[in-house]
User: Which sequence fits this backbone?
């Protein structure tokens, strides 16, 4: 299952500091049993999407968020308290994919909400995702449970440009800003 965190950060003067902090935090997260991969992304065309940042995690189950190990590294928002008033986010878990694929600098993640099975696009295969839970407290984390259905695809910068995908309504395109941590 994958855990998604979609975020906006409201203070441009502290954004570089926040991104550096988040990179360090990803390395702590993947040290936890049951949390297998972590990678962050930024919207390619932020003016066309609701969420500027995306973090994707491969997890075995929601049990990771109930562990003492997760709480001890500040999981559930405690680690990011210094940025609390600057972050808005939406969190959810999805079934339909077990492990987030590795994306290099040229890779792109495509997310759509309004088309839960994706779009019929040349050279792109969407996988439908179903929310693994509704709105709930999952240990030290709070899940929004929305959207209940969406689709994800992996592509590359060239295909995104050739198909002009940053302008397709209902489609968010993200580029990696960190390496994949395992």
Assistant:
């Amino acid at each position: 299952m994958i855990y998604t965190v979609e975020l906006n950060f409201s203070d441009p003067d502290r954004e570089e500091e926040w991104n550096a902090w988040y990179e360090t935090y990803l390395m702590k997260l993947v040290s936890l049993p049951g949390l297998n991969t972590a990678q962050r992304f930024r919207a390619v065309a932020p003016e066309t999407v609701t969420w500027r940042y995306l973090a994707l995690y491969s997890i075995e189950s929601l049990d990771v968020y109930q562990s003492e190990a997760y709480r001890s590294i500040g999981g559930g928002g405690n680690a990011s308290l210094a940025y609390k008033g600057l972050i808005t986010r939406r969190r959810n878990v999805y079934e339909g994919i077990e492990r987030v694929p590795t994306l290099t600098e040229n890779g792109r993640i495509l997310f759509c909400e309004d088309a839960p099975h994706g779009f019929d696009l040349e050279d792109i295969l969407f996988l439908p995702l179903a929310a693994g839970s509704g709105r709930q407290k999952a240990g030290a984390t709070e899940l929004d449970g929305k959207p209940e259905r969406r689709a994800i695809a992996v592509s590359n910068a060239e295909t995104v440009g050739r198909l002009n995908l940053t302008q397709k309504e209902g489609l968010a395109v993200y580029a990696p800003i960190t390496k994949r941590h395992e």
